[in-house]
Amino acid sequence: SIDTVIPLKSRALWNKHQVRKFDKPEDFQDRFIDHVETTLARSLYNCDDMAAYEAASMSVRDNLVIDWNKTQQKFTTRDPKRVYYLSLEFLMGRALDNALINMKIDDPEDPSASQDSKGEPREMIKGALDDLGFKLEDVLDQEPDAGLGNGGLGRLAACFVDSMATEGIPAWGYGLRYEYGIFAQKIIDGYQVETPDYWLNSGNPWEIERNEVQIPVTFYGYVDRPEGGKTTLSASQWIGGERVLAVAYDFPVPGFKTSNVNNLRLWQARPTTEFDFAKFNNGDYKNSVAQQQSAESITAVLYPNDNFAQGKELRLKQQYFWCAASLHDILRRFKKSKRSWTEFPEQVAIQLNDTHPTLAILELQRVLVDLEKLDWHEAWDIVTKTFAYTNHTVMQEALEKWPVGLFGHLLPRHLEIIYDINWFFLQDVAKKFPKDVDLLSRISIIEENSPERQIRMAFLAIVGSHKVNGVAELHSELIKTTIFKDFVKFYGASKFVNVTNGITPRRWLKQANPNLARLISKTLNDPTEDYLLDMTKLTQLAKHLEDKKFLKEWNQVKLNNKIRLVDLIKKENGGEDIINREYLDDTLFDMQVKRIHEYKRQQLNVFENGASIEEVAKKYPRKVSIFGGKSAPGYYMAKLIIKLVNSVAEIVNNDESIDDLLKVVFIADYNVSKAEIIIPASDLSEHISTAGTEASGTSNMKFVMNGGLIIGTVDGANVEITREIGEDNVFLFGNLSENVEDLRYNLQYHPQDLPSSLESVLSYIEWSILPENPNEFKPLVDISDDFESYLATQELVDQEFHNQRPEWLKKSVLSVANVGFFSSDRCIEEYSDTIWNVEPVT
Amino acid sequence: SIDTVIPLKSRALWNKHQVRKFDKPEDFQDRFIDHVETTLARSLYNCDDMAAYEAASMSVRDNLVIDWNKTQQKFTTRDPKRVYYLSLEFLMGRALDNALINMKIDDPEDPSASQDSKGEPREMIKGALDDLGFKLEDVLDQEPDAGLGNGGLGRLAACFVDSMATEGIPAWGYGLRYEYGIFAQKIIDGYQVETPDYWLNSGNPWEIERNEVQIPVTFYGYVDRPEGGKTTLSASQWIGGERVLAVAYDFPVPGFKTSNVNNLRLWQARPTTEFDFAKFNNGDYKNSVAQQQSAESITAVLYPNDNFAQGKELRLKQQYFWCAASLHDILRRFKKSKRSWTEFPEQVAIQLNDTHPTLAILELQRVLVDLEKLDWHEAWDIVTKTFAYTNHTVMQEALEKWPVGLFGHLLPRHLEIIYDINWFFLQDVAKKFPKDVDLLSRISIIEENSPERQIRMAFLAIVGSHKVNGVAELHSELIKTTIFKDFVKFYGASKFVNVTNGITPRRWLKQANPNLARLISKTLNDPTEDYLLDMTKLTQLAKHLEDKKFLKEWNQVKLNNKIRLVDLIKKENGGEDIINREYLDDTLFDMQVKRIHEYKRQQLNVFENGASIEEVAKKYPRKVSIFGGKSAPGYYMAKLIIKLVNSVAEIVNNDESIDDLLKVVFIADYNVSKAEIIIPASDLSEHISTAGTEASGTSNMKFVMNGGLIIGTVDGANVEITREIGEDNVFLFGNLSENVEDLRYNLQYHPQDLPSSLESVLSYIEWSILPENPNEFKPLVDISDDFESYLATQELVDQEFHNQRPEWLKKSVLSVANVGFFSSDRCIEEYSDTIWNVEPVT
Fold first, then answer.
1. CATH (one of 3.50.50.60, 3.40.50.2000, 2.60.40.3880, 3.20.20.70) for B148-501+829-836
2. Rounded-to-integer distance, Cα B50 and Cα B296, Å
């Protein structure tokens, strides 16, 4: 199946000149200077930190690409079952430091020699750069974040590709190469202001522009059935209107301690260069240029909404563009093996990260029926065996629905296919439950009740998949009893499984918290850091709970991380310190960093700060309350929360009576690389969503992995975190999720009096902070009936932190010791076993 | 003045690792495979011709960049006077073959060794590629043309940068990096149809993306004079509205037989990434993204007009964007030397290629007055000493004018500066000619007579420059007596000079016609091809006029070139031959390839073909009439000419009575790389513009350099070509240019009867070719009063070609022998001596 282009007689020459990875500082320096002097056309006379970042990245990338080539050739030769992870968001953050951590150096003379004998690759590069006149830290700091995601969903995809590469799963990620990632957040007069994130302004050394992979994608037009096809079930021809090209950009994804390098393929829209008579025969050159230019807008901007479905045509266009290009790429690869179509599901597993890629289901059915001329039912059997769907939310406002009119205009053939899928599906439902007429309208892929008929994308994803999973135990149970209850009734419970989310310990422990990683490695006597692959080893930390020297070192790591964060805050504050550096060890760093959302209830945390103000002197000394996160630009209430935080910060930080006992800080433009500095500095973090709303949460895991304690509601993965690290080590409060639906109903229809504590905070805020508009924050208090319980738990936190520090430290150690379950490696193993049926290729 | 970034202690290491150029096939192969395997992330299993083209180009580029770096460092160290050539068009064509021809290989062990001992670099690469499994010709054929120009003006700029590099002039070209070059031309039903030329679709290995050179450019806004400045002459502050970034893309320009590599810097527009409160405080994220995206449209498209000024705001925006970025780049470089401003004109010469870059005059004045706080007159003295202006046309419709309103909205401060320049200028004029009141309104930079007041850009260019040149002797005389008569009166004649255009013999002889170059090299006993640098050597060819073997070889070269062209025509005609290959040597290849324009009179040539039809059998055997060229998309009459050619071709080529004695061929999408195949195959070419309209023409020179004879009017450089190669060797006909203005006037107001020959052709065309619309072509005959003279001369041509072939061949040899004057090296020497006052740096 390999395309042999080079004649046999030339191959020896190719092999002779084959490129080898650098494995010594001198060889790295050779490549580095080659890139400076040729690729960048610069010299030692004008090589600044940015040029050094580029040259270093390109040199390291060269090593990765060599392994990438070998990995892909291995997969081509062995032809195993492959996984394709379709996600509209990949929140990758920075690449260079991650590549250094994952860099595997082989000894060409002695391939069996461990790289450990050569020392860490990161240290080698640090030394080599130092010799050339650069500091690694400054060089790393030049890299802009690849912010191609909004929050948890996008970062989960990034952790998953890391784990898949590490575990040797033959997997590719597929996404979009947005020219503008998630907006940069500025805070002006306390309000969030968004500025476009043109992240490619200085180029991107981490991508391979694959001009040779250009896939045409069609929109609009009409459907024809020329060869006597009488129904929509027969092979049809979609005569498209607009046509654009999807060009592939590949991002090598290295694994840890392996030379396996997987691929993340992101598509960018470009104008077609082909001649389209229909388009040009009007002779309007200016217009035809403008039309071509507009093609690029499809992948221009990431939609900045998190947990909210916005029904814009351009969004649907993005989704189809991405699904079509990815699927055709997958099909082309499959077809090389000349296998029969029935083998497709044995060779290909496609995971849908949320409903955004659901169109891939329709596209595969269309290709099989219309182009490959398979029988409808044969095709549908292949489709459903191929796809699996991950649900991320039970919240109505986040569930994707598309009006039938808009959908059919953009994708006329796909709408026909939806109707046919639904027709057969409803027939089966009716056969099984012939007397339940309500069921049919409840379970139908088409929602008929709204003013315009809508396509329920989650229902389509379920019908087109063989497995559906939630992302934490509680969440997976909840979907079975609420939004997908009818599907459980029809399909049975076995179609619905749980895979609790996880995070990669390479980025979130080793990269973000090198001091802690070093202490762990030393304590576990694990110099090669095998624990980062087998996190059960961390449980050995529990043996050292009584070791005072160890606890002191543990505390020192946290203190150093706090200093790193205080430096960042100072820099962001125009070089002025907000936090008193004298008492850092005695200051509780309390954090809530995540998207701003009503359901995540940052407002509860602010109210708690408000409540503390009058009691601060007598209650406890020294706390810093840190907030960070973006709001969707059009989300009024979330933006109000940001303003509230900043207003409270303004009061608190300038109140002389408070002195520096309490500080409130909003860190603007929260992103992955800031998270890497913020999270390791936390004593306590807040995961206080209204019970039943947060599907999993992953920042909770990141904090725990860095020795931070958490305060939280009985929601998402908080439940499993508590089970893993013990309920004594987690500060849970509030309602159980079972009651949530009732609670919401009651609150809505029987408004209750607010607890007095909240009343008093609110009145303080009204009169002290926002006298000009006192009622503005009122809507935020509706979901705060666990406020008293929250306050009480916060008091407990303060007491423990300030008065029982040794206990606190032990909880911190136990958190890390028992965090192993939340490694994304474990997730990938579960997906591989229970959903994808794939095995690592070694 | 060199920025020293790298600490001294690291320099030895940098020097140790310094990259060296490859000079052996093995080293080229090493780099080639490195680029395939790392930069392209491909392998011998999927390396096709396109990948080979990219890898070969990047490898050769690496060599060029090493020399580029050395050249630029040399210039920085020596700090000579520099030339900046500002041209809105650079019609570069393909780069790889040109780079191979110009590649200089040094022997690192023995720098004094001539590269000739190693054989030609092009041959070395050919062999090295062959070993790797690729044919050089196929690899070269992958490259898309860099079509960043319309016609002669843009190709002139390309020839000039070639000659400046070859001669060691410290010169940079400045232009725009259009995403869409000149449109691709398709012929559908005989009509031109334009499709956008998205030439960067496969990337561009020949450019160095300089993300570190980003210059902000401002538009719109208003002018403020805060520090008590009372008049527009005092330092003012332009508060801009829109702001975009100009990012530099560098194209290395190699010289022939020198390691000197000059730079062509093209600017691309990008959105700013800075935070602009005024823009974003409305909180409309979607709109702010859209605004940023639109920035890129400034450099999206090349305006497809040739010799026609289109007054669109976006065009003016392009011009200012390019002038501002280029000028600030020039100023930054000058400022490094810490010289005083009065030295600026001694260090910097800026040549304006046509009036398109005239805004640079205003921008320099603005920077000096507003930012550098120089006195107005001191500044203006510097400005006028710096700039020189090349005029390219006397035709009214091609002279740039901008409405004051549009201009002032986009560039409010620059409009003030124009008024002030004009004020002082008119004062001087009035002082010198106090009694001539009409003169003031005639000579004013502002035209007051039109419905809206207009800025006359050519006048501004003259007033702001110290020299003005035409591009052929006749043309340079003509501008002094017509459009610029008043300026000659005021400034005196010495400000107006002539530099007759030229072409680079490296591309237009050696690259386009390697067989002829080889024959010349052999005949002149000049194995190292020094004649390509000193074209006077060609006169020695005249010694061989009686050498029959030589003449036979000469003829054979032409025949082989005809076969190459016939192959191209066959390929373009869907694999079917139009031209009978049996009689190629006896077939006159008569060509007219250039932009389609009424004044260039392709219609005359078509009418001549029409006239031949009825007489073909008795008159002469075997001629192929070849046309090629694009029309501006909105130019009705030119598009009609194309349709006419194709209609005549349709009739002629399918008329059995004509058999294959006459064929008419329109080659679609004429461009530089097609010209390289077409021109060397010509026996005769047509340069028959209405006398006094074509400023110079350069295709006439290209044909002569390839041994083609020319038929032409007494126009442009035809006059000097005739002088150089002898009037016996050129077929001139028609009116002298002195009469042209009268003639045009007479024709317009006293229509005369058409000559009977033309009447008969027209009636034939009306009834045979276009019966549905017989009067459509009528407007084209107005300027054809020399038709009879043209027909007679064509008869002479046929007779000589078919009956006196030895004489014909001698004329062909004499053409090449005496073409030396038209090398662009001679132009650059003249510019250097008489206008720029610069010397080569060796």
1. 3.40.50.2000
2. 28
